[in-house]
């Protein structure tokens, strides 16, 4: 007997009552979930069939106790490369098909979350009954661009509306029992284990009406696919595959759709995009989270100071208070500080309205925030976070006047998007205790924090900063000092390339639509309107020097500002914003139209490539330590398309040779396309940044 069979048989007990009802009980006694591998899925399906085929069996009940989830994703992806894997899928298809043809009713009762392959296993039963409030279902691998497969789509499309099916398989969210029952994902709820035996006794008689019959309502399917096709869905392999399956479902029977799902599942598992997304969104992010847990518990944080009660400072203060830490929110006057504190109340009210926060939690959060104009209130802070306007002189003054109120062992952090940490640290007495913490706006919704180490930042300061980030349930990347560091630096190139194309005569709508088709949430010109054109000009003016391409963009922004086109707040920027009407593209008559038509692909490749190319420069210069930090930072911080897995995964996915050819073809457009000789050398060596889930970078 294989180890898998031994493992499962040790955990599953089988009994039978006088009416021929077989009851299987599978208990996971550990607090951690049982990782259900595809081999275990196959064996468990075989076990169900073997019981149902017994002559004295009239129906089957499975009681699942404990947490169950999908096995390791990397292991699954590696298995998919073996020739035997496709044969295994063929066998599973046959088992699922055979199971669907047996007329004996089946039911599964479960009391904890079942996700991934475990959720797919539950779908093999005619009925699913939730025990208590923790019996949740979900497919978290969907958020990683993976399809759960193994009959999950084929069963779900006969149970759920297509748009809900799509959302369930792509969002990664867990469905609570009450919602699952409402949509038909489960067939009943039991409030507690005390009622389970009564339920089993009342449902022990064989009832053929309980047998699930697979059937697709073509009218519902058409309506749902029309809804999905009308939405602006972000491009990804999983989206493409699911829409293909949905559109094919109407003309296929159970067996045919099962086979189609099987091929889609295999195709996604073996795709480069899938490996990239899993590597970044699962393993790299988890490693980043783990890095925040090193500090001893006795060094826990009790008081934080935040200077600057604008949008950023207010958001940081809210996150600190939500984490259970007292925070002093200081501004130049009490009115400004109180306004910043009111932001937390606004966030709490919104979360309460959405049922994402309990009413009683709001006063606890608000009590922890002290709004003040007095520097003395910062006295004794273990960390002070300076979050004032992005101006080196202003920040220098704030640091000098507040540094004396920090604990002797405390650390000072600047929330700066682009100003060098080493230069700001000169205003602090001990540069070893100075660090950058770049939060992203809105802070309460953005998970990333870019932690910037100056040359003199000590290891213990970095450790304390990471511990603080972890307390806020944020995800850190650690980078080294430099102008604009990493995320802001490559994001500025995204904005630069958008304006550069506009100056070349490419219509604004093609640039913005091209960005969205590439997978960006917002086009570069719309982003500039949101952050304001004067602020972008100010950022350029803070740089020690500007390249030719940057000067060209800087000069054009100045001309736009002189026309009164400063961005969304003024209702006029790259777009016009008429009252209560959709925004409209602004057509600048001073710009000439492009004589030769650039392709949509070139527009997309330029926006993606310009960020990826400068990311390599950051890695070569030592601003980045590892490609994984670049991938995590680019997708979580600045919206680089998720389907790529990040900037370095993007280069790997298209290949270094093709990437350099693209950059060379774009070199005519500006100095931002200058290719480092070291990258060409790596190309000649056949280099890739990753081999599966392992980084090649030294």
UniProtKB/TrEMBL annotation:
Leader peptide range in chain numbering: none
Pfam family membership, one: 3HCDH
Catalyzed reaction equations: a (3S)-3-hydroxyacyl-CoA + NAD(+) = a 3-oxoacyl-CoA + NADH + H(+)
Keyword Signal: no
Oxidoreductase as UniProt keyword: yes
Residues annotated as domain 3-hydroxyacyl-CoA dehydrogenase C-terminal: 485-577
3-hydroxyacyl-CoA dehydrogenase NAD binding domain mapped to chain residues: 303-481
InterPro entries: 3-OHacyl-CoA_DH_NAD-bd (IPR006176), 3HC_DH_C (IPR006108), 6-PGluconate_DH-like_C_sf (IPR008927), ClpP/crotonase-like_dom_sf (IPR029045), FA_oxidation_alpha_subunit (IPR050136), NAD(P)-bd_dom_sf (IPR036291)
Alphabetic keyword roster: NAD, Oxidoreductase
Annotated protein name in UniProt: 3-hydroxyacyl-CoA dehydrogenase NAD-binding domain-containing protein
Species assigned in the record: Sphingobacterium daejeonense
């Amino acid at each position: 007997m294989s180890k898998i069979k031994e493992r499962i048989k040790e955990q599953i007990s089988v009994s039978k009552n006088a009416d021929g009802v077989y009851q299987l009980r599978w208990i996971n006694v550990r607090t951690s979930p049982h990782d259900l591998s595809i081999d275990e899925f196959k064996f468990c399906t075989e076990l169900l069939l073997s019981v149902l085929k017994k002559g004295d069996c009239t129906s089957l009940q499975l009681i699942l106790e404990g947490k169950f989830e999908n096995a390791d994703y990397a292991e699954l992806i590696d298995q998919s490369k073996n020739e035997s894997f496709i044969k295994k899928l063929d066998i599973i298809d046959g088992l699922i098909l055979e199971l669907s043809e047996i007329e004996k009713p089946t039911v599964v009762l479960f009391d904890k979350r079942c996700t991934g392959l475990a959720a797919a296993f539950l779908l093999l039963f005619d009925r699913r009954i939730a025990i208590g409030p923790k019996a949740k279902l979900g497919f978290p691998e969907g958020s990683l661009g993976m399809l759960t497969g193994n009959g999950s789509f084929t069963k779900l499309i006969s149970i759920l509306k297509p748009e809900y099916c799509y959302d369930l398989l792509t969002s990664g969210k867990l469905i609570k029992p009450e919602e699952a029952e409402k949509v038909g994902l489960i067939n009943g709820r039991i409030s507690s284990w005390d009622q389970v035996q009564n339920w089993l006794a009342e449902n022990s008689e064989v009832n053929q009406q309980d047998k699930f019959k697979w059937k697709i309502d073509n009218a519902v399917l058409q309506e749902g696919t029309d809804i999905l096709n009308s939405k602006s869905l972000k491009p990804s392999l999983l989206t493409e595959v699911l829409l293909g399956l949905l559109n094919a479902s109407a003309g296929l029977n159970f067996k045919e759709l099962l086979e189609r799902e099987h091929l889609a599942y295999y195709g996604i598992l073996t795709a480069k995009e899938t490996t990239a997304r899993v590597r970044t969104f699962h393993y790299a992010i988890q490693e980043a989270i783990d890095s925040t847990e090193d500090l001893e518990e006795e060094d826990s944080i009790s008081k934080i100071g935040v200077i600057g009660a604008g949008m950023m400072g207010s958001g940081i203060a809210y996150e600190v208070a939500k984490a259970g830490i007292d925070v002093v929110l200081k501004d130049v006057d009490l009115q400004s500080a109180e306004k910043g504190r009111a932001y937390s109340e606004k966030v709490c009210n919104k979360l309460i309205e959405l049922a994402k926060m309990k009413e009683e939690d709001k006063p606890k959060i608000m009590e922890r925030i002290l709004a003040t104009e007095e520097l003395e209130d910062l006295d004794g802070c273990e960390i002070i976070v300076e979050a004032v306007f992005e101006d080196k002189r202003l920040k220098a003054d704030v640091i000098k006047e507040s540094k004396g109120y920090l604990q002797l062992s405390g650390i000072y952090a600047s929330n700066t998007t682009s100003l060098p940490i080493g230069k700001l640290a000169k205003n602090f007495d001990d540069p070893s205790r100075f660090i950058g913490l770049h939060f992203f706006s809105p802070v309460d919704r953005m998970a990333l924090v870019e932690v910037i180490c100056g040359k003199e930042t000590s290891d213990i300061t970095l450790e304390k900063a990471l511990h603080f980030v972890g307390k806020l349930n944020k995800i850190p990347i650690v980078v080294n000092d430099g102008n604009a560091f990493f995320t802001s630096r490559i994001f500025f190139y995204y904005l630069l390339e958008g304006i550069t194309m506009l100056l070349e005569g490419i219509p604004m709508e093609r640039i913005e639509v091209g960005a969205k088709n590439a997978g960006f949430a917002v086009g570069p010109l719309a982003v500039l309107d949101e952050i304001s054109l004067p602020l972008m000009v100010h950022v350029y003016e803070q740089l020690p020097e500007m390249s030719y391409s940057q000067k060209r963009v800087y000069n054009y922004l100045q001309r736009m500002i002189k026309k009164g086109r400063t961005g969304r707040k003024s209702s006029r920027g790259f777009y016009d914003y008429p009252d209560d009407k959709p925004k409209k593209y602004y057509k600048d008559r001073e710009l000439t139209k492009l004589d030769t038509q650039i392709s949509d692909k070139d527009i997309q490749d330029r926006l993606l490539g310009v960020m990826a190319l400068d990311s390599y420069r950051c890695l070569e210069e030592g601003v980045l330590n590892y490609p994984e930090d670049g991938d995590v930072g680019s997708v979580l911080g600045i919206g680089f398309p998720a389907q790529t897995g990040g900037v370095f995964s993007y280069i790997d996915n298209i290949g270094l040779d093709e990437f350099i050819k693209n950059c060379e073809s774009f070199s005519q457009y500006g100095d931002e396309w200058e290719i480092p000789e070291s990258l060409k050398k790596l190309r000649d060596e056949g280099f890739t940044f990753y081999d599966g889930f392992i980084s090649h970078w030294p």
